[in-house]
Amino acid sequence: xxxxxxxxxxxxxxxxxxxxxxxxxxxxxxxxxxxxxxxxxxxxxxxxxxxxxxxxxxxxxxxxxxxxxxxxxxxxxxxxxxxxxxxxxxxxxxxxxxxxxxxxxxxxxxxxxxxxxxxxxxxxxxxxxxxxxxxxxxxxxxxxxxxxxxxxxxxxxxxxxxxxx
Length: 165
Description:
With about 160 residues, the protein is α+β, with helices and mostly antiparallel strands. It has six helices and four strands, in the order H-H-H-H-E-H-H-E-E-E.
């Protein structure tokens, strides 16, 4: 399990404006979290429920273009997928994640139960990132919008649903 990191205080550079220092800090942390997404979950969102192998699986999901995991029941696959969607949309602005499944209701469960159910309700930093008023959990139109322009969309994974996203 990734433990929260200890940060050192930097000396204040008075030659730069507050806005420049803030922009540099955001750039540094964004770069750090893009390189270490499992640390983003434990440090930024303050979720310490991942085990070491879930941290490893989460890291590999970010680093590879194709991730294929064969796992047993009851080990938190949907929970990790929900966290993956939230972290990706947070650290990569204006991105779109499309969740597809055989039926729309199956894919909709990731958003309704995991993202908006467990993750959104338990972690205050996630509540700051998600635009709940701009999101929808309707049966035929389910999506989550983030304040930075990212979104998670649910579609049916059949041949008849091609072309929209």
